[in-house]
Amino acid sequence: MKLFGLIDCNNFYVSCERAFQPRLEGKPTLVLSNNDGCVIARSNEVKELGVKMGAPFFKIKQFCTQEGIEVFSSNYALYADMSSRVMTIIRQFEPFVEVYSIDEAFISFESEHPEALEEYFIRLRDIVLQSTGIPISIGVSTSKTLAKVTNHVAKKERESGVCILTQEGAIESILERFPVGDIWGVGRRFSERLQALGVKTALDLKNSVRLREQFGVVMARTIEELKGVPCQALEKAAPKKSIVCSRSFGERVSVLSALEEAVCLYASQACEKLRAQDSVASCIHVFLEASAFTADKQYSGGVTYPLPQATSDTRVIISAAKSIIKRLYHSGVPYKKAGVMLMEIGKNSVTQGDLFLENTSEATSELMQTIDGINARWGRSTLYFGAQGGPSGREWKMKSDSKSRNFTSAWDDLPEAS
DNA sequence: TCTGGGGTCCTAGGACCC
DNA sequence: TCTGGGGTCCTAGGACCC
């Protein structure tokens, strides 16, 4: 029988911090979003203290001090590296893996005796924990949606961290007490509407009919998946169709030159991502957001700009971004956020050339490859474009007051044993 | 003072084509 | 009295995910 599994890292960002700072073990620990804005990861101790996901940090700061909660700014260099270590081990156990997010992966396989697999997955769990320090939970069932449900059960109720359910009866007894809003694909809006119709649990949803007209095809698929009819296969990693780089500023920014620096930095980072997936973009969108405290919304907005030729050349994109930002900018407005989006992305190899432009793509790609290579070898921002401003002295840079070291990705930050 | 960042898919309606 | 049928593409908005 065809089965799906979901492997999920427990409290992932907190677990990454703990892996290199054992003193955090057993202590309430949380990780903040970019700009130290809100809570995006909580240890179990923090959850027990009642701190909610997404809680604005400024509102709970005092509470954190009172309760002795350990607070960290997000450290994506660390989390991304730990994630790839975990995924590498998973691939050694299972050939078919879909990396679904930084801390989750689906697997898919055939098995006639699923219950006998428990020991196998417990061993996977043990090896991941031993090799990386990251605890994981594993849920297995007959569709992706049910794998999500069993993963939930594994995390909350199973000492082993593994839950395998394939029998209809056993699945139903779980669905019966599973809130409809916790189902994968049922968000807050749908949850409210479903409950108003008396659909309160996953079992209610599984047994409901005629929801298709009101809730669309996505919900229809979810219902089928709850019945154990898989409607979603494992997906291969596909190149991104759009790439966004944007940040809120640590402080409000009103100076054009600073906005230009920020936008050029985001443009350059977006180009790096673009080249990493061997693509080119034909369109760029740049946006500015004014602080909510300036009454006028008119100063927030963006402009989309077609590029003369599909490209991944940072110089071309930066120059387009600069000309857009000049159009968007209003003197004296306090801006809180800016961003760059690359769109109409296609494969580098099948680009349409321009009859009237000089073909410089070969020289461009060599230059860009060289820059990317140097930065990969010697660290991000070893080489950068002048328009971005230097790595130091960016008065607009985001708030990140409590970041841990880059334990696994910077030579100077390697942990020391004493 | 003060609430992140990065994505995908679906649908409805309008413009336009033959 | 009274104006077809079928299709594509684009956009905006809504919903969801982590």
Topology order in helix (H) and strand (E) letters: EHEEHHEHEEHEHEHHHHEHEEHEH
**DSSP E strands, number:** 12
Q: Which architecture name of the largest domain does CATH use?
A: 2-Layer Sandwich
Could you state the CATH homologous superfamily of the largest domain?
Reverse transcriptase/Diguanylate cyclase domain
Helix content: 25-40%
Count of folded domains: 3
Layout of helices and strands:
Layout: E1 2-9, H1 12-20, E2 29-32, E3 39-42, H2 44-48, H3 57-67, E4 70-72, H4 76-93, E5 97-101, E6 104-110, H5 118-132, E7 136-141, H6 144-157, E8 162-164, H7 168-175, H8 188-196, H9 202-207, H10 212-226, E9 243-253, H11 256-276, E10 279-290, E11 301-311, H12 314-328, E12 335-347, H13 361-378
Parallel strand pairs: 2-4, 7-8
Antiparallel strand pairs: 1-6, 1-7, 2-3, 5-6, 9-12, 10-11, 10-12
Helix pairs in contact: 4-5, 11-12
The chain binds a DNA duplex (18 and 18 nucleotides) through α3, α8, α10 and β9.
